[in-house]
Amino acid sequence: MVARRKVAVVGVALSDCGRVDDATPYALHAQAARRALADAGLDRSLVDGFASAGLGTLAPVEVAEYLGLRPTWVDSTSVGGSTWEVMAAHAADAITAGHARAVLLVYGSTARADVRAGRRTGTLSFGTRGPMQFEVPYGHTLIAKYAMAARRHMIEYGTTIEQLAEVAVQARANAALNPEAMFRTPITVDEVLSGPMIADPFTKLHCCVRSDGGAAVLLVAEEYVRDCRTSPVWVLGSGESVSHAAMSEWPDFTVSPAAVSGRLAFERAGVRPAEIEVAGIYDAFTYMTLVTLEDLGFCGKGEGGAFVEKGRLRVEGGELPVNTDGGGLSAQHPGMRGLFLLVEAVRQLRGECGERQVRRRDGSPPRLAVASGTGGWFCSSGTVVLGVG
């Protein structure tokens, strides 16, 4: 029996992102994986655990074969955007228990290029079987479900459309500091409100961009940290939760499953939300950021609107910099973006983010970060607390 071990993230990377018309999803997986291993300074022969979702009929098998890996621990958990925080939690548990020494998480997608080339449409369908059969006939789209939830919050707590627009404005301000973000030109609240309506109350800029891209994260047992070229970022605690599939089974549109996953992650990490210095929050739509901030405990329920309107999410001058790369609203969103949250959180803790680097009062990088992914239409949540030192 192997003694329980600490787990560190030692390698993170993105593939080429944004507009990538000349690569396959497999190639983006491989590019991100190679870069993450190079970032860590480790050989792929050390990798005995592998996690992947979203590509192929047998996702981890097909992608592992493409990458030339033969893992003895695999995970193909697929719960939408929260997949990667949930997988990171599973990987950390496996390493701690001695079932793996190094686990590679990889994702890649050509969502934008596929639409451009006519290989798929711009509409995401989850099918008509199971619980969906009772909603699909009414044309209840994914965006409409988020829009309904946002409207409920507005009615219940007086949240305004201007406050929701502030989330997009501040994400773009952070993206302006990121040379790799797809959209960097600053926007105003008025520009967000005057855009074409997508699903009331969401106009275009309330919604995430569509991009291509991939990401990879390498987690290892503590005894391998000394062999790495990077400083370790420790997995301090994690939590996961599922809520509903059918909207009719969602008890409260103003509460996401992050209320559970966040509480578990903070408790297991021994950290309070007030101690977090930088946050990655899934933001396919502006409301997701606002309600997740509430549910993670950064402000009270119903206080998200007032919290975000004061510029708190900005890298420059913000009390809690959120989605410092620009997030899914401005940087990139190739689908199931949760892995990108982990990459950015690690880079911030290592002090590698250049102009968008968050700094403490003494000029040093932050020491505590949280990444919280959301899947489906608030159907699932995974939250991971990371720290250095």
Radius of gyration: 19 Å
- Structure annotation, total helices: 12
> Helix coverage percent of residues?
25-40%
Output mean pLDDT: 95
Question: Which range does the strand content fall in?
Answer: 15-25%
Strand order of the largest sheet: 3-2-4-7-1-8-11-10-9
Q: How do the helices and strands follow one another from N- to C-terminus?
A: EHEHEHEHHHHEEEEHEHHHHEE
Derived structural class: alpha/beta
Strand tally is 11
Major pleated sheet: 9 strands, mixed
- Catalogue the unreliable spans: none
Tell me the span between the first and last alpha carbons.
28 Å
Q: How would the global form be characterised? A: globular
Question: Main traits of this protein?
Answer:
11 strands, two-stranded antiparallel ribbon, alpha/beta, 389 residues, globular
